[in-house]
Every structure is written in C-alpha cells, then in structure tokens.
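Now for my pick.
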Amino acid sequence: MGAAGASAGVAWGAAHPGAAGVVSRSGLFDQLRDTARVTVVCAPAGSGKTFLLRSWISEDGLAESTGWVAVPRNERDPQRFWLGVLGALRQTAAGSQVVRELTAAPDLDGWAIAERLLKDMMRLEEPVWLVIDDVHELGSDDARRQLELLVMRGPPDVRFVLVTRHDLRLGLHRLRLEGELTEIRAPDLRFTTEEARGLLTAAGADLPEAAFGMLYERTEGWAAGLRLAALSLAGHPDPERFAAEFRGSERTVAEYLLAEVLERQPDNVRRLLLRTSLLDRVSGALADVVTGGSGSEAILQELEDANAFVVSLDPARSWFRYHHLFADLLQRELRRTAPGEVTALHQAAAQWLAAHGHPVDAVRHAQKAQDWITAARLLADNWPGLHLGGRAATTHELVAGFPAEARMADAELAAVAAADQLAQGSLEEAERYLALAERGSASTSFDRRGQAQVLLGVVRLLLARQRGNLPAVSDEARRLQTTAEAPDAGWPGLGEELRALALINLGTAEAWAAQFQDAERHLEQGAALARRIGRPYLEFTGRAHQATIEIIGSTARAAERSKRAIELAEQHGWTDEPTAGTAYVMLGGALVWQGRPEEAEPWVQRAERTVRAEAEPAEAMAVYYVRGLLELVRGRDADALTAYQAAERLAGRFAATHYLILPARARLLQLLVRLGDTQHAEESIAALGEQDRDRGDIRIAIAVLRLAQHDPETAAVALAPVLDGSAPVTSRSLQNEAFLLEAIARDAVGDAIAAERALERALDIAEPDCALSIFLLHPAPDLLEQHARHRTAHASLIADVLGMLAGSRPAPPRGQPRSPLEPLSDSEIRVLRYLPTHLSAPEIASELYLSTNTVKTHVRHLYTKLGTHSRDETVEYGRALGLLAPSTRHR
C-alpha cells in the first residue's frame, strides 16, 4: 500500500476501538462479519483498506484467529511469499495446532507448499481468517496461480481476505457466480458524513457544519484525504479557513499524491494528466485534442487499471475523471509549469465538447476562459434541451457563472436568465429579465432572430402558467406551436418537443382552473407525445398533473397516477423537483381521503419540502389544502387553521381563480365552527358574493354551521342543491360529505327513513375508494351503528368506520396492500427494481456496484419491511405498491 501500507510491515498491530483518530465503521464491519468465503477489498492507495481491516479485527476480537501477510513491493519470490503465509497462519490459535512449520530451502517448490498447506487446513477445528495485503504487488505468475489454487480449494473454515489496488487475475469470477465472493470497492470505503465527522472529532478538529460539508465534498470521503486533513486541523488557528482552502495543494496531501502517483509516470503520461486536469471529465479523443498527442484512451485505461486516482464513468471505459484532490494537485502543477496555456486549453475543450454533444461542459469551459459571447450562445442554443430534460439546477449554475452585466446586455442570455428566475421562484425577477430580453431582441442578429422569438415565447408561456393566467397560457401555447412549426423556426427539429411543452403547460393551467375535461385531453396528448419522442421529464410533468384531475373523481385512481409519476421521478432522479411535489401531495391527499392520515403524513411532508409557494403557487395551494385536511382528520384544529390561513394569503397571487381557493375557504369556515367561533363564520359567509355562497363547497360549510347552531332544517335546505347537482362541488368526496351531513340533519329532525337513505348513499360513494375521512370529519357513530342493524350493502365498511372512530388503525382499501411496516430506503428500492429480473445476487451487485453481501442484506430488509418470504412474493408486493411496473403477463 505504498507509504500507508509499508509502515505496517509483516507483523500487524491494530488500533484499538476508541483510540484517538479511530472511527468504528459499523456498516463495513457488518459487511465483513457476514462475508462469503472469499472477500476482495479493491481500492486505490489511501482509501483506508488496511486501516479498515485492522480496526475491524481489533473491534471483533479476531486477533488470535487472523493471519496477516503484507506482500512486499514487486514480490517475485514464491517461496518467500509462501513462507510468509505459513508463518502468519501459525501465529493464529487454531493454525498453530495444524499448520506444520517449514524452513526455507533452495529447491522448495511453491506448488508443493500450497498443496501441503491445503492438507493442513483441512484439519482446522475452528474458523481462521487469512488476510493478504497488497496482493497486486505479487509479481510472480507462479505465485498468483498457486494462490488461486489455495483460494479455490480452501476449506470452509478458512476465510480469505485479499487486499489490492486493482482487480486480480485469479479466476475469481467463478466464486462470484457461485455467490462465494464478497467485493468491497472504493465507493464502499468512502467515509460517510457521520464517519467523517467522527474522525475529525476524534482528532480534536471540530468544524461548523458548513465548513465540514465543504471539506467532506472536497475529499469525497477519501480516507487518506480526511486523515491528512485531520492531522492538519489539529491545533490549527483558523480551522474554518483551512476547510475552505483545503485542496490538493495542501502540502501533506500533495506530497502523498506526488510520491504515490504523479512522479512514477513517464513524461507523456505526466503531460496528459497535467493538461487534462482542467476537465471535469475526459475521454481519449478529448485528451488527444488538448494534449496534441494520440493514444490517450489507452493511457487513461491503464491508469485506471493501476488505480491511479483515475475512475472510468461508463461501462465502455471511454470517459474518465480524476479524484478531486488529485485534480487539484495537477492543476496547481499546470499553473506553475505552464500558466500561459490555461485559457487556450479551456477554449479548445469548449470547442470540442460543443461539437460532440456535450453543451453543459462546453459552456463551463467557455466561462472559465471568460469567453462570455461564446458561452452565452452555447447556453441559449441548448437551453430548450436542458429545460425539457428537467435540468433546472444545471441551468441555474450556468446562468450564475456569467457576470451580471453579461446577463443584462445579451437578449438571449437575459431570456434564459428569466427562465432560470422562474425556476427559482422569483417571478418578479423573471419579469424584469423578460422585459430586458424583449427590448433587446430587436438588436439580435438576423440569423438568430427566429430562435430568440421561440425562446421568448417559451418563457412567456411558463410565466403565464405560474401566474395562473389561463387566457395568456392559451395564447402563448397556440403562438408557440405556430412559431415552432414554421419553416424558418429557430430550433429545427424541436417542433414536437415544444408542442408537448405547450400542451402540458396548457393542461396544467386548465386543471388548476377547474377546466378538467380540456385539461385531461391536453395533458394526455402532451404526455403521450413526450413519451413517443423520448422526453421523460415532460411525460413525468404531464402524468403528475393528471393526478390532480383524477382526485376529483377517484382517490384510488389519483393514488395510482401519483405513484406512477413518483416512480418516474425515482428512476430519473427528479424526486426533489417541484413537479414531484405535485405527485406527493396528490398521493398524500388520496390517503387522507381514505382515512389513512399516518400514511399520508410522509408524502405531505415531501411535498412541503419540494413545492415552493413563490415558484409554484398553484401547487402550493394544493399542499396547504391537503395539510389542512390532514390536520382536520387528526383533530389538530390549530395546525389546520395555520394551513388554511396560509392558503387564504396565497389566494391573492393568482391572475385567475384557482379551483381550490373556494374549497379551502369552505374548510376554513368549517374550522371556525369546530373552534366555536360561529360569529366569525357567519360574518365570513355574509362577506362572500352571492355566486360563491351558492357553490356546493360553501353550502356544505353553511350546513356544518347550521348543525352546530342546532338548526338541522336550515342545514338540509342548504344541502338540497348539492344533493340534486344544481350546486356542483369540486370532487366526488365532497358529494359524499353532503350526503353524510344530510343523514345527520334528517336524523336530528326524526326523519329516520330519509336519514337512512342519505347515509346509504354516502356509503355507496365511499365504498369504491374506501374514502372514509368524511366519517372522521363528521363523526356519527350512533347513526352508523343503527344503520348497520338495517338492510345495508356496506356492513363491512361501517365496521371499518366504527373501528376508526374507536381508535383502531383504518384498514387499507380492498385490493390494495398495506404500506411497508417501515419506509423503504433508496438503496432498498434500487435493489427491489432488479428482483423481477433473473439476475442473481452477485449479478445485481455488479450492476449496482455493491457487494453481494450488501445486496443480500437489502433483500432481507425488504422481506422484513414488506412482510414477504420469497423473491416472487416481494416482486408482486412491490407491483401492488406501485414501486414496480405491472407484469407484462397481465397486460
């Protein structure tokens, strides 16, 4: 292990748990405890391989049962290697009883030693661990083949741990297929944030959270970097400044990397490393351009094979990146040795990347060269693709990379800045940039004028949709489609993408304006078109907003739509996008209507984290409404009041009416009644216009008020237009609520037949979706118990409702599985998605770059959380929960 491993020598002395600077890495320790017969720990120098194993052996008390062999650098003597192995095994308690002593001799054959050792180990009576450190230094082909013999034929009581910087040529693929190989690689060895914090604390280097986060990001959890940082931080007069400035240029890190990697390379490799260090990622062809040489891909592949802080980014091993600290060191060396070449290198990289379909990287390098005109053109040319691909965060980063004067002076860049401000939620700033872009568009060159007009049309469409201005959305959508389809369109080939964008934004605006039929048609057309042309983010947006329409008629269908949209978000990494918040809140709302508030809570919380009222006021209104309903169902009236008051404040931001504004006001009225403030409720109803007072939502609230005032006759009068459909309501669940209140009112005046008829109708509506929250909002247990003794088609549903009112957990809807006993982690969901395939655990591990043991652990957790007992059962349960696509056999 170079400098780190050489100090260990042949004999080992493990650090004790709790010793200064030692952190117990429980996750990796668990992995080592439950390993297969052979474990390979493969990672670059400084990754902490040796330290991890020594710490684990010490913590688990395995010193007397572990033999440790450190292979010297470039070991080519098989006899010396095997004598070391025998000596290490004889130092274990069990090995000392069965492994015979052997003395070095000139003609001692390694094959004979291996065969003899196999025979001795067959007599072991308790487990023994054999750790061979720095196996990559074993330079004898014979010794490697002999080691392969020992590993492949070793008895079950011998566990082998092979520590190496790069993959071994030992035929281990057979063990992998048989499930007898555990692999721990560089990503597994990276310290977690918790472990890194523990390491610094143990070294007496406590940092504020922001400074610690910066240091952790720079080191990428790399063990050597963190330990060297901890050494430097101990007693440092300004630790926060150190963390902010910590780079590969830090002397201790630089010395380590120079000694271990850079100084060992021939001149052509050093030139490649230095001149490509400015690139976030590099391919062979790009490296050839910036170095002026050839054969760069082969060099990069060889460097990765040697684990020289070079990592491939794709299965074909055509793109690579350098470890951040290593890249820092290389950049420092480049600036020291060739400062005049830096700008030209950035420009050459920008030109090549733009020509080869990598616009984001091209913009970044043009910015680093301070070539603002080229950078602005590249960003404007490629903004539609970024937006349609759901890369708002990338756009924001690129826009922020321009000086303020460039953003205001260039019309196309100002339009992109306006779109960026919309995504960030600054509608006023977006309007300011849009005005600058419109004023400056007249001076745009003739060859770019058509593209600039399309860009401005997209921004105007997005702004109108976020303002809730449906007429403006309709106008801009129609104009955008006409402009995009014109023969001289600025972006030829993007006509279908822009049409899908226009349809989905139009459908979204129509949905929030309660034009549900038109909204469904446009959203379906837009989502289907997006799917056909391969624009998953657009499809995801359309599907998420379709759930807002479904919830009007069926909570079950809304939940299903939401789950599908969430699955798309998880597949593509869009779980923190505001659009994902729409799916979260609709799923949470469906669960609330079904009387399952505890299951709804995490989804509503996720919506609250992702939807920002300043950026997406329409979606935020839905979040406030569902949060208030959730708290009403729980009986937390004060929290519900906070939510509905927030909804009321937001109502003034819409250019047109949002369909949830009136339902939210109706809930606020009901809440005032529950809080005993009937006077305020009366005044609020009187302040409404006549048209609003006649809406079904408000009539329901009036009925609640009259019932609280012990006036059931007037309550029934208020409900009559809702029941006959002349006063429409915004959802089927509200119609259900009206029938329940009618039953309560008729029961109060002694009209048992009418009460029974209304209650049966309420149960009819509730049954298909198991929408039970209405019975929690307006509890009537005596009425339900009495109804259950008469002829009813809903005896089971009544039992569920009465159980809920008595405090037991509500049953899930029939045909739907219960939610997991505990939430599934992201890692468990990733493994779950591979279970429908025929891949084995080792093959899944290879796909996910995990160890086989980690995959098996995740599968066990899935069984526990889902209450399943087999892979097939888990797959079916995952499909029922909407976490997996339906089986094609049932389509």
